[in-house]
Amino acid sequence: MFRVVQSSAGRFLLATLIMLLIAGVFYAMTQPAKRNDALIKAIQRGDASAVRSLLDQGADPNAVWDRSDFRVRSWRDLHPVSLFKRLSNRRRDSYTDITALGVAAVCGSVQGRTDIIELLLHKGADVDKRFGYSDTALSQSVAWESQSEVQNIAVAKMLLDHGANIDAGAAEGGTALIRAAASGHHATVQFLLSRGAQMDAQDMLGRTALQAAANGRIVSLLTKSSQKR
């Protein structure tokens, strides 16, 4: 064995085997990330066929859209200077690390569709997985501006029908009811109340949905609902 390694051909063979091993490990590390990146992009495009195909190929339904861009995607990402720069620039805000389901919920509210959400849930997406400031897909979907609140409600209904916790995020970014009230979405607030949303839950600023309400119509609706309860 040592005689083979000592020869130039042996050293070349050993170096080749080591490089192939490293390349194999690197490929195994980056392929899931590439599939998950492709999944997020397909969700953003509203391409249900691509989403279904990627999920069938092994893309993670609980994939995270890491907008801080710190994952290893190529050999250059392993360079110490590149690692240090990306670590230094890493930012965390409410839109960093949004889940695939969160992206689908937001896009679904804007585009007026729930088919991709259903695909992700069918493949095992965690309906209450937290991201950002403890947002969930539900709290994001009801706060988003869409052409019609009917679209927000359709997404919220699907998530709730699949077991979403309507009061998730109470002590952090706020429940779905607080987010909808603060966004001025009257019909969405009405829908969430009909599904039993708690009115006394508070966000990180100590506000209830009534205190966060964006307009008088929502204040009136919440006040009347509080009296009925």
Architecture overview:
With 229 residues, the chain is mainly alpha-helical. It has one domain (2-165): Alpha Horseshoe (Serine Threonine Protein Phosphatase 5, Tetratricopeptide repeat). Helix content is 59%, strand content 2%. The chain has 12 helices and 2 strands, in the order H-H-H-E-H-E-H-H-H-H-H-H-H-H. The protein has helices at 2-6, 8-45, 48-56, 80-88, 100-111, 115-122, 137-143, 149-161, 176-182, 186-194, 209-212, 216-228; strands at residues 64-65, 98-99. The protein has a two-stranded antiparallel ribbon. Helix 3 (48-56) packs parallel to helix 6, helix 5 (100-111) packs antiparallel against helix 8 (149-161) and helix 9 (176-182) runs antiparallel to helix 10. The longest helix is centred in the N-terminal third of the chain and has 38 residues, at 8-45. The chain is elongated and about 90 Å long. Residues 26-31 and 90-95 have low confidence and may be disordered.
Write the layout of secondary structure elements.
Blueprint: H1 2-6, H2 8-45, H3 48-56, E1 64-65, H4 80-88, E2 98-99, H5 100-111, H6 115-122, H7 137-143, H8 149-161, H9 176-182, H10 186-194, H11 209-212, H12 216-228
Helix pairs in contact: 2-3, 2-5, 3-6, 5-6, 5-7, 5-8, 7-8, 7-9, 8-10, 9-10, 10-12
Count up the domains: 1
User: What's the order of the H and E elements?
Assistant: HHHEHEHHHHHHHH
CATH architecture heading: Alpha Horseshoe
CA-CA gap between termini: 82 Å
The rough form would be described as: elongated
Helix content: 55-70%
Output the keywords.
mainly alpha, 12 helices, 229 residues, Serine Threonine Protein Phosphatase 5, Tetratricopeptide repeat, two-stranded antiparallel sheet, 2% strand
